[in-house]
Amino acid sequence: MSEENVHPGMNLGYHGGEHEAEVKVFGFWAFLMSDLVTFGIVFAVFGTMVTATAGGPGPEEVTNLHSVAIQTALLLGSSFGFSWASLSMKYHPGQRWRTLGWLAVAATSALCFLIVELIDFHHWTTIGAVPQRSGYLSALWALVGLHGLHVAGGLLWMAAMTGQILVFGLTDDIKSRVTRMGLYWHFLDVVWVGIFSMVFLAGVA
Amino acid sequence: MNGLFGRLAWSDLKLFETFMHGVSIDTLVAAGAAWMVVLGGVALAAWLTWARLWGPLWRDWLTSVDHKKIGIMYIVLGFVMMARGVAEGVVMRTHQATAYQGGVLSEEHWAELFSTHGTIMIFFVAMPFITGFINYLVPLQIGARDMAFPMLNQISLGLTATGAALTMISLVVGIFETGGWTAYPPFTGADFDPGPGPDYWVWAILLSGFGSMFSGINFAVTIYKMRAPGMTYMRMPVFTWTALCTSILLTFALPPLTVACLMQALDRYLGFHFFTNDQGGNMMNYANLFWMFGHPEVYILILPAFGIFSELTSTFAAKRLYGYTSLVLATMAIAVISFCVWLHHFFTMGNSATVNAAFGIATMLIAIPTGVKVYVWMATLWGGRIRFLTPMVYMTGFFIMFVIGGLSGIILANPAINWQVHNTQFIVAHFHNVLLPGTLFGILAGVHIWFPKAFGFRLDERAGRITAYLWIAGFSLTFLPLYIVGLMGYPRRSAAWDDPTFLPYMIVCMIGAILLAAAFTGLFVTLWISVRNRASLAVPMGDPWDGRTLEWATPAPPPHWNFATIPSIAERDAFAREKAEGRPYVIPAQYRDIHLPPDTPAGMIVFLTTTAFGFAATWWIWWLAILAAVVLVGWVVVHSFRNHPEVVIPAVEVKRVNNAWIEAIELAQGGITRDDEDTPRNRGYAATDMMVAS
């Protein structure tokens, strides 16, 4: 089993750390696969409940494509920022401020995403589109909310990672953690693309 | 007051049930069970204090990340919960024997009993047994020192214990849910059952479900990434193969259960409409989600037992497993098909005939790989030199009984027949018929095989064999009559029945249940006798059964680090081949320092916080729920900021332990033959049967 250069993106400083990094990153992939099934199931439930509006607000009322476009741009921008953080970690491990700066960009962008999403949620409550109103709205809130909770959890993680980079520097351990957080962050983007197209675009198509 | 204790009131304490609702058999059973939990807990705590064992318990067990200790703790948890499950079974069968036009228990209490019995036996008995065996065996079988994620492993155990603790607490405080182990809404929804019961269920299952998912990921990564050099996939022991399939199922089958529990919680706590009767809710989503988990769960529980039976047949027939490749393919096939059959659990709930036919055919298909396995075991036994020790008794019981259970499954797979017998005792007979002879007999056989590995001495053969026969007889008497009353139309889960012809069958069932209780007690009698005679049963050299796989190439019990040097594997059944060629137990040319993961209280912190959270959420004690969540998240963050240096075992220490073991083997001057296997001469050094070893 050759395990050299399995994770060149981490640019680990010595030979021999790859196996541990590989085990951890692979394990995180397995977790993401499991999480993807979770999202897939919630998507499926949403799919069965699209018509279960029980006379309440439906997709036309809750979809504000303007706001959704802004959210999409912010979340994709956050992923983009994270990519730069990963590249900085690889090519400039000595200058941790580069990595931290890009992490800050990613975090700010994601925070703005959450704020815009919360504004949408608030709007939904004002038009009576609360989850208690119908099966459709329950599924909508659960699906969008589950993604939002993942983003909020990711922000907490990012704050902790920022602290760890400040305390420990970009050690091999930290690099491995940042790599896994990157997987998580891009994964949430992929899920959002699903929500964007299957919930909002399809809702008003 | 209300804010401090939520909706919890003094009247929720079951301990005083006889004073609140008058003395009857019903209230005596409820109060007695509650007192047993409380007094049992107090007695255990008192004993630990008296024997000064709190410190060792904490240091050597609760904070240990050693996969072997975690595996043992899982199995101990399983036996503790099984005591309750078996007791409930006996109470239920007693009730049913008296249930002609009403039995000794109230209907509510009866419903609670069959719900807790099912929940406990599946989630907190069978699951901990399976996870425990995988934990103990897989790293040893693949030549690794520990799991891929030792701390996560401990956290999984903590979460499983949380679920078990919540169901035990429900016996003392309040009431568990009454909608069966599947907890179908809307019956368990807020409209029909606003009480704490379904909430206990939701949190117990949700939290322990996370633990199972983490276990699945951990096992899969361990098997994919931690195998010793040379151990290719097709050289892995069969048990490891079944563990891999189970891990994959755990990783992908738990999310539907998690989602179903979360949606049920949203319905109950926040008034969502996922599974309600009104406002567009759809309980069929729940049925689908639950069984998308529930059916793979059946194979999560049975596949590792198949793995144990496979190891068992080849070891106790002293033959290489016949058809290894077929068995591996069959296991994988079962794992895949198990995701395509869930709808057969509700053929009668409004699906079209076409959909039912598709799922019926898929269900029948799964019998093919299962049949392949039965033939593999038969062919392995054929022409072997079979030793009829306790594991083989279980194997025999399994062989006959499991085939009957499997055949009744084929009958049920036909939607037309299913419509006739659904929701009758026929179903109860069927699933007990596969779970007891399948999973449970496999586990008990496994305990007999690997107990000497884990603790250094064999279990008493005579007591073990009597217990095994008791299990087989008890099972047959308790569950086979249910096929007949099921066909006669006795509905399952009904608190009373009206047809006097059921009576003789129900009495047989009750006698069978008492036999099962005796069989369960027999396990502890066996343990007691064995502990007392541990000196003459000792097998410190580690290979009492002429084993074939790597775990037998270690002392019993194995050292914390498992292997002095990581073995290099050249073929399947590596240890059997080494013995056949006369070159086992070699002192390595060089010893190195061994690095092991450090102990951690992580599992206990997760256990305490999530138990507090689950209890608080059940009783609406919001401050406690928030506090527990904050403490947990805060601890995780703080933990991530600390360094956790590995424990280093110096090479000289490894050398001392390993050389002492090998010298003991050399001093033994030849191993014992299989004829002496169950005599005190068996010290764990096997003279291999070279004619058939390969």
Fold and architecture overview:
The complex is a heterodimer of chains A (205) and B (694). Chain A has 205 residues and is mainly α. Chain A has a domain at 64-204: Cytochrome c oxidase, subunit III, four-helix bundle (Four Helix Bundle (Hemerythrin (Met), subunit A)), CATH 1.20.120. Chain A has six helices and no strands. In chain A, helix 3 (65-91) runs antiparallel to helix 4 (96-126) and helix 3 (65-91) runs antiparallel to helix 6. The longest helix of chain A has 34 residues, at 135-168. The termini of chain A are far apart. Chain B is an all-alpha fold and 694 residues long. Chain B folds into two domains: 6-52, no CATH class; 53-600 and 644-693, Cytochrome c oxidase-like, subunit I domain (Cytochrome C Oxidase, Chain A, Up-down Bundle). Chain B has 24 helices and two strands. Chain B has a two-stranded antiparallel ribbon with strand order 1-2. In chain B, helix 14 (390-413) runs parallel beside helix 17 (461-487). The radius of gyration of chain B is 25 Å and the shape is globular. The N and C termini of chain B lie far apart (72 Å). The model of chain B has no long low-confidence stretch (mean pLDDT 94). At the A-B interface, helix 1 and helix 5 of A face helix 8, helix 9, helix 10 and helix 22 of B.
